[in-house]
Write a structure and sequence with these properties.
By secondary structure, the protein is α+β, with helices and mostly antiparallel strands. 33% of the residues lie in helices and 16% in strands. It contains seven helices and seven strands; from the N terminus they run H-E-E-H-H-E-E-H-H-E-E-H-H-E. The strands form three sheets. Strands 1-4-5 form a three-stranded antiparallel β-sheet. A two-stranded antiparallel ribbon has the order 2-3. The protein is globular.
C-alpha cells in the first residue's frame, strides 16, 4: 500500500510540479592536497552543495582517487502525457523545437500515448555541425565554460585534448560545441 501511495505522490509531483529534472553527472577525482572547499571554489559551487551530491563523503578524510560528483544543470524535465496532448502542443507549451522533442523521445510523428512519461529537453541539439569556439578570458575555468555552453566538462576536455585542466590561459581558443 505504501508503494502505491508513493507512486501516486510521485506521479502528482511530476504532473503538477512541472516534472522532475534529469541531471547530467560530472565527476572530479580527488588529488593530494584537495579539500572540499578548494574543489567547491574551483568548480564554482559550495561545500554544502558538494555534500548534498555526495552523501557518503567524509569532508575531513578525503581519499586520493575518490570520485566526487559535481552539480551540473539538468538535461531535461519530464511530462506525463494528458488527454489531448501531442508532440506539437507540448513543444509549444514548453517552448522547445518540435524536432528536439521528437529526438528526445524517438518519436516518428506527433502522436503521444496518454499516461506515458516523456522527456522535455532543456538543452537540445538538432544536428548542426558547425564548430563553436570560445576565447578564454582571465578568470575563466573549464567548469565555468562548460556550464556557460551547457556541455559536460568531460567533453570539453576531450574535444580540446586537455591533459591538465589548470593549463588553460587567457587568449587561448577552445572548442565548446
Amino acid at each position: 500500500m505504501r508503494k502505491v501511495v508513493l507512486a501516486v505522490v510521485l506521479l502528482l509531483v511530476l504532473t503538477i510540479g512541472g516534472g522532475a529534472m534529469a541531471k547530467e553527472v560530472t565527476y572530479y577525482t580527488i588529488e593530494a592536497g584537495d579539500t572540499l572547499r578548494k574543489i567547491a571554489a574551483k568548480y564554482e559551487t559550495t561545500v554544502l552543495e558538494l555534500l548534498d551530491f555526495n552523501p557518503g563523503i567524509t569532508p575531513d578524510n578525503l581519499q586520493i582517487g575518490e570520485k566526487v560528483t559535481l552539480p551540473v544543470e539538468p538535461l531535461w524535465s519530464y511530462h506525463i502525457v494528458q488527454p489531448g496532448d501531442n508532440a506539437k502542443s507540448l513543444a509549444t507549451q514548453y517552448q522547445v523545437p518540435l524536432e528536439a522533442l521528437k529526438q528526445a523521445n524517438e518519436l516518428k510523428d506527433n502522436k503521444l500515448t496518454e499516461g506515458k512519461m516523456i522527456r522535455i529537453p532543456i538543452h537540445f541539439y538538432l544536428g548542426e555541425t558547425k564548430e563553436i569556439s570560445h576565447k578564454i578570458e582571465i578568470g575563466d575555468t573549464l567548469y565555468k565554460i562548460a556550464q556557460q555552453y551547457k556541455v559536460s566538462l568531460e567533453n570539453l576536455i576531450k574535444w580540446n585534448d586537455i591533459k591538465d585542466v589548470d593549463s588553460i590561459y587567457a587568449g587561448q581558443s577552445i572548442i565548446v560545441g
